[in-house]
Design goal:
Elements lengths: L1 H13 L23 H10 L7 E2 L2 E2 L15 H10 L1 H10 L9 H16 L6 H10 L7 E2 L2 E2 L15 H21 L11 H13 L12 H10 L19 H4 L4 H10 L1 H8 L7 H14 L8 H10 L28 H10 L1 H10 L11 H16 L5 H8 L1
Antiparallel strand pairs: 1-2, 3-4
Length: about 400
């Protein structure tokens, strides 16, 4: 219950809500595998028994590693590979405790993976004492008043004490940043920059000084909406996620790293350069800021394009063909991977691998086959190969109509 309440609080303050991309094409420059809802994933983490072995910020079991320290900050399919590598050990723990290895639907697996991502997106809670020091050092009091003390060039900050999420303050800094820069230049105040957790620390100080007990939460950010905002707010005119944009600014998929608040700080720090190129600065409501930063956060974890040729080598080296059938490769124990119904997307492939881990391990023991271990990038290559085989083996979507057109 303690973990459940904590997860709900985190999810409503600065969370990310991912959804599954409909397909994964080997020829794409990057895969947009946007996972499911982290709030659903937190429930599954408890309901499926993960909490019995793994802890999150000190709450939970100790048989498995602590997952609340951002140890799974890696591409989605690499996370899937880690889960696969440790699946036999996890299965044995379930056997020892006489419980059943949990089964997942693809949407559930996507949500569980998004929850693991979500754990890595959060910074430590803001520190009021550090925030007080930052407030002085960055000369915020020159323009803003707080608790009845400070300047009058900018608005009072007491009202921000009720906000639980630093993204409210982030949105205000973005929307008024250009005007603030003009005022600071006029009164000869140097424009401050923000480090990793500075915004959260400043908000913690504002909250304690303002004395507000009311809390206003922000709905979970949705990166699919954020992706649309990225185009609508003209971000794509300068930046290049997945070979889009005009390259005036850096490719955010490779350059933008860090947590949600770290990304928010980077947006402020680079504001003057962006404003000089923009002209009119697009405004962002707090909900839009949450969606946009959720999208930007996930960009750093998109899988590099898998290589089908390397994937075929992985398929052979891991001896997958000893059990499974593919064109030109015979296997009679497992299903035909080119025609199996639930293997149309990477998330479906990962889910089916997990759900059948028990039966696969038993068969491998019977055949004296060593459990395959995946290294970085191998899972992506393997899945790219499997999906490319399915694509080449699939009949035309409307063969009859095609024949009529040719006649």
């Amino acid at each position: 219950m303690k973990l459940r309440l904590a997860l709900f609080a985190w999810a409503f303050s600065i969370s990310v809500a991912y959804q599954i991309a409909p397909a994964y094409a080997a020829e794409q420059s990057a895969s947009y595998l946007l996972p499911g809802n982290p709030l659903d994933g937190s429930r599954l983490f408890s309901d499926k028994g993960c909490l019995g072995c793994h802890s999150v910020y000190g709450v939970g079991g100790v048989a498995g590693p602590e997952l609340g320290q951002g140890i799974l900050k890696r591409p989605l399919l690499d996370i899937a590979g880690v889960m696969w590598n440790h699946a036999p050990g996890m299965a044995h723990l379930f056997q020892e405790t006489r419980t059943t290895l949990p089964q997942f639907k693809p949407a559930e697996m996507a949500s569980l993976l998004s929850f693991l991502y979500y754990l890595g997106s959060l910074d430590p809670p803001g520190d009021a004492a550090t925030g007080a020091r930052l407030f002085r050092e960055k000369q915020c009091q020159t323009c803003h008043s707080l608790g009845g003390k400070g300047g009058k060039h900018g608005p009072k900050l007491d009202g921000y004490g009720r906000y639980a999420s630093p993204l409210f303050l982030t949105a205000a800094l973005w929307n008024h940043g250009k005007a603030m820069a003009g005022v600071m230049e006029a009164i000869h105040v140097p424009r401050p920059t923000f480090g990793k957790n500075d915004i959260a620390d400043l908000l913690a100080y504002i909250r304690t000084t303002a004395g507000s007990v009311e809390r206003v939460y922000l709905r979970p950010g949705n990166p699919q909406i954020g992706e649309k905002l990225f185009a609508q707010k003209r971000c794509a005119q300068c930046h290049t996620p997945n070979a889009q944009g005009t390259r005036i600014g850096p490719d955010l998929r490779t350059k933008l790293k860090g947590s949600l608040i770290g990304i928010a700080g980077a947006m402020w720090n680079h504001g003057p350069k962006m404003w000089a190129k923009m002209g009119d600065v697009p405004s962002l409501a707090p909900e839009e800021m949450s969606d946009l930063i959720s999208y930007l956060y996930f960009l750093q974890f998109t899988d590099p394009s898998g290589n089908a040729a390397r994937g075929r080598v992985v398929y052979q080296e891991k001896r997958c063909g000893g059990c499974h059938t593919l064109p030109g490769v015979s296997g009679t124990v497992g299903p035909d991977l080119a025609s199996a119904e639930k293997l149309k997307t990477p998330v479906e492939v990962v889910t089916e691998m997990w759900n059948h881990v028990g039966s696969m391990e038993r068969k491998m023991l019977e055949e004296s086959v060593e459990w395959p271990v995946f290294k970085g990038g191998e899972m992506s290559d393997l899945i790219t190969y499997l999906l490319s085989v399915r694509k080449s083996s699939a009949p035309p979507a409307d063969g009859k109509n095609l024949e009529r057109k040719e006649k």
